[in-house]
Write a structure and sequence with these properties.
With 143 residues, the protein is an alpha+beta fold. It is built from 4 helices and 5 strands; from the N terminus they run βααβββαβα. The chain has a single domain, classed as Gcn5-related N-acetyltransferase (GNAT) (Aminopeptidase, 3-Layer(aba) Sandwich), CATH 3.40.630. A 5-stranded mixed sheet has the order 1-2-3-4-5, sandwiched between helices.
Length: 143
């Protein structure tokens, strides 16, 4: 079962959301507190949407975080896929079904596309498998 959490439901699932987010985003220990505070703020203020996938026992097995962005140049609304984390192995058929539900959600919300930025190698591979194409690459130099 796939459910979209309301802001009022975030506290109930906060610890599992925080755990999954820190793991999926590869957050350094020294940054966990500030990362978590910002994430909680964004979830409670509905700047980020949390979707949970539950098993038959209603246990969380996957977490997806998404946000809507508006491109001021093209005037297009886009769904930004922020994070995905699975507590159990998902079959390709399960990923396909859930990805299809995300596509349907994005279309229902009048989005022109789904975008994703990640440094996580697992998500990079999944994105390619599901038809995402590379739009840009970010480079970083430490100072």
């Amino acid at each position: 079962m796939v459910i979209k959490l309301l802001a009022t439901q975030i506290p109930k699932y906060w610890e599992v959301i925080k755990f999954a987010s820190v793991k999926a985003d590869l957050i350094a220990d020294k940054d966990i507190q500030s990362y978590s505070i910002q994430l909680l703020f964004d979830l409670l203020n509905e700047k980020i949407t949390c979707v949970l996938v539950l098993n038959d026992k209603r246990e969380v097995i996957r977490i997806l975080l998404m946000a809507f962005v508006f491109d001021k140049i093209t005037k297009e609304r886009k769904l930004s896929f922020k994070l995905g984390y699975s507590f159990v192995h998902a079959t390709p058929d399960q990923w396909l079904e859930e990805t299809t539900q995300v596509y349907t959600f994005a279309k229902k919300e009048n989005c022109s596309s789904i975008i994703m930025a990640t440094g996580n190698p697992v998500l990079k591979n999944l994105a390619k498998q599901y038809g995402f194409t590379e739009a840009s690459i970010n480079y970083v130099i430490k100072l």
